[in-house]
Predict the 3D structure of the following.
Amino acid sequence: MAAERHASPNWVLLSLMLAGLLAWLSLDAVSVAPNRIVAGAPHRAYEVMGGWPMLLVTLPMLGVMALAWRPDSRRLRLAVALVVALLAALPLWLAAAVWALVDPSLPQARLGIGASVWLLLFLWLLVLLELRTRLGLARWQGWALLLPVLAAWWLALAHWLEPLALNREYQGRSDQFVAAIGYHLALVGAAVGASLLLGVALALAMRRHAGLQRAGFAVLNFLQTIPSLALFGLLLAPLAWLSARVEWLSALGVSGIGWAPAWLALVAYSLLPMVRNTFVALEGVDAGVLESARGMGMSRQQVFWQVRLPLALPVILEGVRITTVQAIGLTAVAALIGAGGLGTFIFQGLGQAAMDLVLLGALPIIALALLADALFGALADGLRHGGAR
Amino acid sequence: MPLLWLGLLLAATLGMEQLEGVLRLIEPDSREVIYRRDTFLALLVQHVMVVLVASLLAVAIGVGAAIAVTRPAGRDFRPLVGQLASIGQTFPPVAVLALAVPVLGFGTLPIIMALLLYGLLPIVRNTLAGIEGIDPAVHEAARGMGMTGVQVLRQVELPLAAPVILAGIRTSVTINIATAAIGATVGASNLGDPIISGIVNGNTAYVVQGAVLIGLLAISVDSLFERFMPRLAPR
Amino acid sequence: MIELFDVTKRFGDEIAVNDISLRVEKGELCALVGTSGCGKSTTLRMINRLIEHSEGEIHLDGQPVRTFNEQLLRRRIGYVIQSTGLFPHWTVARNIGLVPRLLKWPRTRIRERVAELMGLLGLPPAEFAAKYPHQLSGGQAQRVGVARALAADPEILLMDEPFGALDPITRESLQHELRDLQARLHKTIVFVTHDMDEALALADRLVVMHRGRIVQQGRPIELLREPVDNFVASLLGGVERGLKEAGLTRVSERMLPLGPRLLARERVAQTAPLRDALSMMLWHRVDRLTVVDDDDIPIGELSLRRLVGGRPE
């Protein structure tokens, strides 16, 4: 559009970038410690190698700001490229900081990532989000943009960022880490799978009996208000009691702590969103469509399997998405009752005041949640496009 | 109904000692079955205070931000704030809490910060949904009758969006009560303490005490919202 | 009096209203008609500045609207829209009293005014004052909408398809009421509609818009008789224009005074439109009607030849 050609400045990009610049110049970028116990010595960005490497980050940021001053779609595309370059350049800057600040003769010496670097990462991702919206890029295109960034980080972590504190924590327990992710996902999968079966069955039953519908939702709503930690705790006693009395249960590994109470609590929490979405989805199918299906002479079964269910599927899938994301977070809490998973690192780290260990647990959990969200979101979109509009 | 739950909560907080006999059944072998490191009343007050402070801040900031981005001047920020609120929702509360600690250290501050950040999201999302869900014709009529921006906001938008906004606040507070309990692991003392300590020491009676109190608190607050929440305005 | 001088409105590259000039006299009801997207609603909304015009000038009683404070301007202009836009959280009485309250009238005066208006629009206050919009039927809600617009006694009323969402019977009765109201109140009204019968029935002046331009304006009968082009002709009803014109002409204009002949059996009121007379002739298979006055006393006769405007026998 011609009128857009001389558009007014994009204040969102400008303010985000300005905030980033201020943080970059004023907050601690990294901290260096000789070992795990000692608190690190903080360094600002301009204190690393006389400040030259920081231009690697500062100049592209200024560039993005200049582009945002008179935005058109070509300039915004250029800005996307710059931000992706920035995200990929950050590990290089960290590598420079490692080279300059970490004494290679100390095997335990480590470099911690400071506030300004975290903030920059966060703000840049917001900038990407904003650019994606303004340019109208599809969801998958947004994710594709992150691929070169991930590749750059991967490369740097493997070759030059060995003393990064996060990396050091990982190296100490790489086997545990992989196992924890697997276990975390297994628990989430088992809980979501069980609640999907149970939830769909419940929703179908509720459609038959109005009384069950009211009572069911009352109970599920009630369950949802009980805090997770409390529910985990409350399951300890009865399960411990059961496993002491019932032999085959204890033989199965059921006990007051561990996977059993975690799984039960996860299923209990997952039921409400699952049942609600399934119910609403099945009930929400356009009455006109159903009527015309019956009018064409389809039997009850045919209407359900060929019309109602396919049309309801995206909404049901939405329930699975909510449930999965929620379960990924709750499983982290379950580590407190000995259920294992990534939460273990968080609580170990908190116990030992080892912040990088906390991050080693928290970051993958967030990544898993985002990934699950994107995956199911894309799946539901796909179903909508293919099946029902 | 709220009175009943509040009564139960208070009774349980003050009269936990009287339940020693019952709790003894759960944990017959332990030396101690009542958590005594702190009074339950102090823990309850701590818990409520943290949640209250975080929630009030979250309401002020969240509703404020949502109002700001639905005004003509702040409209540029609307897409970003909306996306942030929906993406932020996928962040697990525990992870947010865990990330607050490295920045803010141990104690009450990181918990308030984490609760505030996490509690913001449902409030922002619902305030946006509430304001933008208003029939455009109503908005048009309000402007057409000559109401100023502030009048439209106060007399039309906020009253009509109130039920949706309050539903967001309710979600936010419910999550915060639960998440605050996990805060016991980062050194804040609240109703999560007995649970953590019970898990660590293998004393189920402690766990039950903490869990029951948090559960009662959550249900009391929820029933308060239920009781005093205005019904959704018809159409 | 409302005047538009060479007014243009652009949305980005799109021209919604293209260089139009228009003058609506005081006390006149001016109907803007055209297909959807022709710019009629945009034109209406530029008058109370819900949309700002890009070029040209809009004057109210000789003063440019841009010189008014936006809100004060709108409080002086009544505004009625198709979907009523009643505030769902306010009672009927409060909805009607909105503008007087904005203008800080004393409370008792507002109450009196609201009661007066509800009476005027056939909404007994005892029954309706405390109701909420969702408890009203479509027609009642639109009456409240009109009452709200009239509350502060504005000289100008802007109506954007006010009766478009109503069933035909309710619509017709509200059109009647509007005509009666207008006969009493003499507001300056700009009325947007795509219902040509509505426009013909209500308008003193008809303005036909097409693709952002005014293609023709004038008295309805003038447009019916001499449409400037095929678009206006087809918009006004194509071959049915004859019937529409018959709908605008009264029997009294064509009748002959009573003659020596026998009275015809079927009677028609002298105030009825020719269209009704024609319909009666078709229905009863006759070619002559007796014309009667309000008291049903015969005063003339109407033959088919006179009705169609043929020369007298």
